[in-house]
Each structure stands twice: as C-alpha cells, then as structure tokens.
C-alpha cells in the first residue's frame, strides 16, 4: 500500500452501437436514431456527474456476403449533429464525437469541433479514428486510396493542423506537411477549452505512441488487472518524451456492467445477456469474419468449422480483418478444445468486453480497485440497453463510489477539461 491520496475515478457513458452490445430482443431496447434515446442516456450520465457522453460512428454499415447483418446496428446519425443537439439539453456533461481523420479535412474538423465547443460552453471532445479499407472509402470521392502505413501519419497531422487553426485567432495558418498544404483562417474565435479534448483508441505500438504524443484520453480494451496495469505503465512512460506529465493523459477502458441484488443474481443475469447478445446468427457472422467462407449451414451449437480459413476472402466487409486468420482459427480451436465449447459458446467467451458483474457494492469496489491499482484512470461504460441501460448504475453504484470519496458529488467547473483535470493549452 502507498500513502498517496486516493485517485479520483473518471467515468463516461458510451451510447451503444456499431457493435453487438445491444440486446435488441429485450422489450426495454429502444431506438438508436430517435433523439429521445440520446437525450435520455446523456441526461442520465449528467445526473451521475459523468465526465462525458461518447458517440461511436461507422461510416458504412458492415456487410457479410453483401448483406447487412440484421442483428447489428442498422443506421446511425452523424455524431456531431447529435451532440450539437444534446448541448442544448445538458449543462455540464462533456460531448465526445468519433470522427474519422482519413475521410475529413483538418479545417473542416477544426471548425466543426470549435463550433461544438462554443455552443456547449467548452464541452467538446474529438475521438480520432482512422480507416484504410477501400470498402469504407467507396462512400467517398478518394475511395480507399490511403495505405495502412499512412493512417497515423495523416491522423497526427490532422490533429496538429486542427490545433493550429484553434490557436491562430485572426492570424493566417500556413502549413506544409506530408499530407496537407494549407493556408487560411478559421471562421471562429479560439474554442473555450483552447483545444477540444482529443481521445484516441489505438492499441498497436504506433497507436500508443500517437496517444502519448497527441491524446488527452485513451479508450483502451484491456480486460484484466495485470493487462491494464501493463498498458497504463507503458503509455504513461512514453509521455516524458513529449514533455508531458502522467496526469495529462487519462486511460479509460471501455467496459460493460451487470448488476444484481446479489453477486449470484448478477452472474446469472450476465450469462443471459451474453447469450442474447450473441445469437446463433451473430455467432456465425463472427466465425465468417475469421474463416472468410460461407458458413450458413454451420451448426452454431456444434464444434468449430473443420475447413481452413481463406486469408484473402472478401466475404466480410467493414469489420476488422485479422492479419493472420489461420493463426486466429488455430488459437480459437485450442480454446474450444480446452474448455469444451461449442462455436457459439466460444464466440461468447472471446468477444465480450471487460465486465464488472455483481451486486452494486461489489462493482463499486472492483472499479475502485482497478483505478487505485493504476490499471486505469476510469472507465467508459457501455450499457447493453438503449436508452435506459445506465439508469441502474447511476442510481446504485455512483452513490457508493461517492461514499468512498473517489468520485465527485458535483461538477467543480463548466468544461470537460475541468472534469478531466486537464490544463488549458497555451497558444503555440
């Protein structure tokens, strides 16, 4: 044990979508398009004094065999449009939009996020993502032109150039780089936060370096205490090379949660939720993502496919394609054999996010343990229901974290940088 003060926990709310998190079969599941759903979840997060509300985004719906998987998210409004509307019905909650740096121009990004920051009084955040696949690029004039090796080069320069626009005021921006040649002026004053908060989600070595150089928040996926501690230490260690202090970057894994009156009740409820999230059809879609062959006739309640994967298949479009499908399939077969799992059971086992499961006191204690042990600085919560999936956590877990003295009882400042304890950057 150390004598350092208790770390304060950071919490954010992720509007579920562009994944298989939502349990569509639950009668309480609502729309992912109607504004009332976004408003309810955001206002619940603000009632819980969360740092920010986080929207993912997909520029094209994912396809298998040329068809949209009807148990996936079908349709999603543009993120900044939704957040501009939410700025009018919230007062303190940060508003984080995922916007692709590959298919947007830095001036456009700088102007849109400056607008959101002004309209919200300093609550905007940009989750910077990249794309190198031609499938997504078909929706754009440039197509899939960008080599995978260039995606972080373009993203880093996009953020750099956006910050130049935010800092410039009435002065012209003159920028010459490998991706952009720009000379112009932003049409708005400097944003209230100086720079809107930058979030990043890459876990590769280049992604970690990009985060250390550029990001204010990292959206990570590490699921165990040891893995979280290793990631936390590695990324924080890299900050010094860029003249940054450890507390200038917050690491916030995306997690799910399931509550019950007892730990046993929560465990049973969690099993039911995972089976609802991974239907037989969804399990087959995940198998086809690895195998790259049509598995329509495969029994999801039987063993894994006996055939070898097709590494060059174009069967699945828009989902992450594993670099070595043959190696992934062999690893999956080993896990299935060791644990005696069917195809569907294996997908359930391998595709779940890190979860906090238990009675409210158990979940509060585990969240606190991860943060005090430097496995994270906080968490981005992904509920399995929209729009009411966060209500129970705010009502039953947040008060326990507040009693522990590790989570705010009220906001202490108006901006997202205030909530995250981040400095306002000086003019460059």
UniProtKB/TrEMBL annotation:
<keyword id="KW-0560">Oxidoreductase</keyword>
<feature type="domain" description="Luciferase-like">
    <location>
        <begin position="26"/>
        <end position="372"/>
    </location>
</feature>
<keyword id="KW-0503">Monooxygenase</keyword>
<feature type="binding site">
    <location>
        <position position="152"/>
    </location>
    <ligand>
        <name>FMN</name>
    </ligand>
</feature>
<feature type="binding site">
    <location>
        <position position="98"/>
    </location>
    <ligand>
        <name>FMN</name>
    </ligand>
</feature>
<keyword id="KW-0288">FMN</keyword>
<keyword id="KW-0285">Flavoprotein</keyword>
<protein>
    <submittedName>
        <fullName>LLM class flavin-dependent oxidoreductase</fullName>
    </submittedName>
</protein>
<dbReference type="GO" id="GO:0016705">
    <property type="term" value="F:oxidoreductase activity, acting on paired donors, with incorporation or reduction of molecular oxygen"/>
</dbReference>
<dbReference type="InterPro" id="IPR011251">
    <property type="entry name" value="Luciferase-like_dom"/>
</dbReference>
<dbReference type="InterPro" id="IPR036661">
    <property type="entry name" value="Luciferase-like_sf"/>
</dbReference>
<feature type="binding site">
    <location>
        <position position="204"/>
    </location>
    <ligand>
        <name>FMN</name>
    </ligand>
</feature>
<dbReference type="InterPro" id="IPR051260">
    <property type="entry name" value="Diverse_substr_monoxygenases"/>
</dbReference>
<dbReference type="GO" id="GO:0004497">
    <property type="term" value="F:monooxygenase activity"/>
</dbReference>
<comment type="similarity">
    <text>Belongs to the NtaA/SnaA/DszA monooxygenase family.</text>
</comment>
<dbReference type="InterPro" id="IPR016215">
    <property type="entry name" value="NTA_MOA"/>
</dbReference>
<dbReference type="Pfam" id="PF00296">
    <property type="entry name" value="Bac_luciferase"/>
</dbReference>
């Amino acid at each position: 044990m150390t004598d350092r003060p208790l770390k304060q926990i950071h919490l954010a709310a992720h509007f579920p979508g562009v994944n298989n998190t939502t349990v569509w079969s639950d009668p309480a599941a609502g729309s992912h398009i109607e504004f009332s759903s976004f408003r309810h979840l955001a206002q619940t997060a603000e009632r819980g004094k969360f740092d920010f509300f986080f929207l993912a985004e997909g520029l094209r719906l994912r396809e298998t065999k040329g068809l949209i998987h009807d148990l996936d998210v079908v349709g999603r409004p543009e993120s900044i449009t939704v957040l501009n509307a939410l700025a009018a019905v919230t007062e303190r909650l940060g508003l984080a939009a995922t916007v692709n740096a590959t298919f947007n121009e830095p001036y456009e990004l700088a102007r849109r996020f400056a607008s959101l920051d002004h309209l919200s009084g300093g609550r905007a955040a940009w989750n910077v993502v990249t794309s190198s696949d031609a499938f997504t690029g078909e929706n754009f004039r440039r197509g899939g032109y960008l080599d995978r090796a260039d995606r972080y080069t373009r993203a880093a320069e996009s953020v750099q150039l956006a910050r130049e626009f935010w800092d410039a005021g009435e002065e012209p921006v003159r920028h010459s780089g490998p991706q952009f040649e720009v000379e112009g002026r932003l049409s708005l004053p400097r944003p209230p936060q100086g720079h809107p908060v930058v979030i990043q989600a890459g876990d590769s070595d280049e992604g970690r370096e990009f985060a250390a150089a550029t990001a204010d928040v990292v959206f990570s996926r590490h699921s165990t205490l040891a893995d979280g501690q290793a990631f936390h230490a590695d990324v924080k260690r890299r900050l010094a090379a860029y003249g940054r202090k450890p507390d200038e970057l917050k690491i916030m894994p995306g997690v799910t949660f399931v509550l019950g009156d007892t730990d046993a009740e929560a465990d049973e409820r969690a099993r039911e939720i995972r089976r609802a999230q991974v239907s037989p059809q969804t399990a087959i879609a995940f198998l086809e993502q690895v195998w790259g062959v049509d598995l329509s006739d495969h029994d999801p309640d039987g063993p894994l496919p006996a055939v070898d994967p097709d590494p060059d298949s174009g069967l699945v479009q828009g989902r992450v394609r594993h670099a070595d499908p043959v190696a992934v399939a062999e690893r999956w077969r080993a896990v299935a054999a060791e644990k005696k799992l069917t195809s569907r059971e294996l997908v359930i086992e391998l595709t779940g996010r890190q979860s906090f499961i238990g009675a409210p006191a158990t979940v509060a204690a585990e969240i606190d343990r991860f943060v005090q042990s430097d496995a994270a600085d906080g968490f981005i919560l992904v509920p399995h229901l929209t729009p009411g999936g966060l209500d129970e956590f705010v009502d039953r877990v947040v008060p326990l974290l507040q009693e522990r003295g590790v989570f705010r009882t009220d906001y202490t400042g108006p901006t997202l940088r205030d909530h995250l304890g981040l400095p306002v950057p000086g003019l460059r």
